[in-house]
Hints:
Keywords: Cytoplasm, RNA-binding. By secondary structure, the protein is an alpha+beta fold. The protein is built from four helices and nine strands.
Amino acid sequence: RKKANDGTISVNRLAYRNYEVLEKMTAGISLIGTEVKSIRDGKMNLRDGFVKPTKEGQCYLHNVHIGQHTGVGAYFRHDELRIRPLLLNKNEARKLAQKVDQKGMTVVPLKAFFNERNLVKIEIGLCRGKNVRDKRDTIKEREAKRETNR
């Protein structure tokens, strides 16, 4: 697979379909060397991922699949679905934890990319779940937009 020119690694399209994104922020991610090599090969999947903030001011990324790197021995291989800490400011993490607890929202990874310093960053979003009616409304809006463009 070819990478996009803007440094994008992976986009979670399912999150935009199933959730209404209220707030976006960028966070760093703590990775092991073989994970970075696998990400450069394009072996990252954000589809089932979610972020779990703690009250102590930390956030952890769960269920994000980073495939194993093929060129290394068994000793250096990483666990594909391990829980990875996000690098956020303590106040930002606390705010996320408060919003998730109070309003019943969730935090979902939306996009993974390389920044200008070539570091892996994750764009996370504070989201509210959509019900079937909301999904139908977005489909109708999209169809109407296509018709006007035609």
